[in-house]
Amino acid sequence: MHDYTASDAERWVPEPDKRPGRTAFQRDRARVLHSAALRRLAGKTQVVTPGAPGEGAARGAPDIPGPPGGGPGSAWDATPRTRLTHSLECAQVGRELGAALGCDPDLVEVACLAHDLGHPPFGHNGERALSEVAASAGGFEGNAQSLRLLSRLEPKRFTGDGRQPGEQASVGLNLTRAALDAATKYPWPRGGHPGGPGSPKFGVYADDLPVFRWFRSGAPDGRRCFEAQVMDWSDDVAYSVHDVEDGLRAGHLDPLLLHAEPERRDIFAVAAARYAPGADPRELAAALDRLLEQDWWPHGYDGTVRAQAGLKDATSQLIGRFCLAAEEATRAAYGPGRLTRYAAELVVPHGVRLECAVLKAVADCYVMQRPDLERLRAEQRVVLAELAEALLARAPAGLDPQYRALYAEAGGEAARLRVVVDQISSLTDASARALHHALV
């Protein structure tokens, strides 16, 4: 049993409460909820680009397919999720799961709302493009960028009183130690992955290490706090379930194919390669079949109100199944007390992780690997590469005032490149295209 300490509620820069009665974690949640970085996620890709043709941007247009059997031009809603809607759904899942296990629900919600703040335009595709652009400055990683936003870039609090030139420095949202820790999915720098230095996943850039070391003081190396584990599983649950839901609603996935060969082999190959490394195809087949055998599983979808309600019920059933399994297994291992910080590890049964991995693979095969999306992704990578080249050639001209000032203060070529990448990563999909059109 473990409760939160005064150290957990400390901030990098101490500040008085504006209104007595709120907890430190309630204040953290409000700061993230009101941030510009969170609002921008409404215009950033989750799986498909917001407003892209054929994805609900102009329902009723001839080029937008309806559901299976619905025909072109139907009024059927295929509006896809964005990074913002995903973050809100992740937060709802995480808040309830965390509360059931004894976490402070506001703290878990902060982590869930913040976990994707650093993702650039065009989703993971944009992340790969910016990683190439920033190779000489330490690379780019969406999770490390999230920490940079929370602790440096998002305007909210400053050190110093500004009376002397250069005395003030942004400390971002100035969240508590526990909130920054909970929002950090990969608590290590580039090359420090516990499973091997070759992993592309990391959670902090070299020049953000001071605040990282502060909030990680006393934490076991490479180990995530319990709230971060709840956030991570909530993220997995939300996007695995909802990406399949979106695929069915948009007509990209025929659920009958989940019973057929060679489609099943393709799904299991993707699952074993990307989402459940080394898993036996027989285990993955059993995991998928367990889901297909449920009374609520949607074996067909035609876009009718009854079908929409059935699909929503299946979504709820899956989320409940995955969260309840984790709650029960964790309670069985650690008992009924409050589980917080480093007092426990989240336990997710192996079979449930495989069910989640199979759903991710289904969305991967039928939504993300569509040929039209691959053509679009190639074009998006060109947009970001050319935009970076144009901004670097003009800098500090062309940068927003916030980044223009940071560019002027940057010491060295790598630091200036990082500022340009910060600017690009802050853009929405549409604003990235607009700036590219203006500069290139």
UniProtKB/TrEMBL annotation:
Region described as Disordered: 1-26, 43-76
Comp. bias regions, Low complexity: 50-63
Keywords for the protein's UniProt record, in alphabetical order: Hydrolase
Endoplasmic reticulum found in the keyword field: no
Domain HD, first and last residues per copy: 83-240
Superkingdom, taxonomy of origin: Bacteria
CDD domains linked to this entry: HDc (cd00077)
Example of a GO biological process term: dGTP catabolic process
Molecular function terms, GO-annotated: dGTPase activity
NCBIfam families, alphabetized: dGTP_triPase, PRK03007.1
Name of the protein in its database record: Deoxyguanosinetriphosphate triphosphohydrolase
